[in-house]
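ingest -> validate -> predict -> emit
validate: passed (alphabet ok, no gaps, 232 aa)
predict: started
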Amino acid sequence: ESLVPIAAGKHPKPFRTRKLSPPAPMILPAGAGGKVGRCQAFSFLGGGMELGVNEVLEVYKQLAGFNEDTLKVLSAKYPVLSSWADELVNSFYDTLYSWEKTRALLEGKDRKRLERTLRDWYLTIVSGDISDDFWKRQWRVGLVHVANGVSNLYFISMMDFIRAFFTDKVKASFDKDEAVELIKAFNTITSVIVSLVVEGYVDAFVNLSGMDESLVHRLAQLGAQEMIDKDG
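emit:
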């Protein structure tokens, strides 16, 4: 029930004493169960319609330099980064509730619960202690967004809001070299999350169509080419 990747759960004290594997409320559409870790999406890599969590992570490792060091950059500054959580959460939801269109999406939702979810999600990222389960849950967020009528446009816009907040805070708190490394690490991790959420979002529609994956892929290719030709 969120416009951002959802991952609720208690964080260990002292810091990093155990692996984080926060639970999250999920609302799955019919036919989407039992497929966590695999998603169906269009890939320029020529891999067909199935790009699972491991494949998405592998793409970022190979093309964007994502690795364990990316996580360590954030974990090393956890005390400072984590201190911004409450301000981020309040600013995030104040923004959503200030616009009628996003406020309508949140009608009837428990704001306190949403805030706790976002806070735990952010703390998990800046802890650098991310479990495999966390990545899988990000993919499932796409399904939740379909179920709640949240478009990728809103989701990606608010992810940019989070990145902008993080960037401003980092620039004001660290020297230039440290800031560059922190921003790069945070943007890389959140880009992985965006990819996983979008994969899950597309997967929901593919499942609901009831059509063969290869057929959906082919129809999309033909439709895209038709649009390109028309615009050309």
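Residues 143 and 153 are 15 Å apart (CA to CA).
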